[in-house]
Amino acid sequence: MTVNLYDHVESIPDFPEKGIVFRDILPLMANGEAFKQATAELAQFARERGVEMVVGPEARGFIVGCPIAYDLGVGFAPARKKGKLPRPAVSATYDLEYGSATLQMEHDAIKPGQKVLVVDDLLATGGTILATIDLVEQMGGIVVGCAFLVDLKDLHGMERLKDYDVKALMEFSGE
Ligand SMILES: O=P(O)(O)OC[C@H]1O[C@H](OP(=O)(O)OP(=O)(O)O)[C@H](O)[C@@H]1O
Ligand SMILES: Nc1ncnc2[nH]cnc12
User: Fold this and answer.
1) What is the pTM of this model?
2) Residue whose CA is closest, atom 19 of ligand 1?
3) Ligand 2 cavity residues, CB under 6 Å
4) 44: Cβ–Cβ under 8 A, 6 or more apart, which residues?
5) Is the C or the N end of the chain the one with fewer CB within 10 Å?
6) Is 60 marked active-site?
7) Taking every annotated instance into account, which residue ranges of this chain make up the domain Phosphoribosyltransferase (predicted)?
């Protein structure tokens, strides 16, 4: 049976005192059937593009990215928030819907020419995923796909990803 993934995303107005509608995907991850279906759909998108490595940003990109990598039988490399990695790193700074941040990856996490899927739970302004793409490209990786559970249409992240092959399983607009 097919699960309606929208039934597993909760919309929370004004959380956490930031004046935005927060789209909470933790209920989806907490539901075995929904999480498995979402993972399978994004893994199929990746398989069709010959993905050799999956990269996801901290923190929720790890949760979505790891089972996709496992399903494909390829590796997962994390893009971590600044200051967490023990080895030399590449860095990219970006603006968020709320605030700004720097992401880092170990400098040899991706081999030149490797086909990479970048994945996150949610696309808002696109800042996080563009920084993740920047890190992969600094190492010579080829981003063959970007995958999300949710696209927040009103924040126009998809337009900033127009040069990439993008898949989002759900779209939300307004309230
Ligand atoms: O498209 P953007 O405007 O960049 O926003 C999307 C990002 O925002 C959220 O992460 P957050 O920065 O809240 O970090 P977290 O996963 O550690 O909670 C979300 O998980 C995405 O990574
Ligand atoms: N509106 C939102 N809901 C959930 N996660 C987010 N990350 C950035 N903006 C978000």
Assistant:
1) 0.96
2) 122
3) 20-23, 97, 122, 124, 152
4) none
5) N
6) yes
7) 32-166
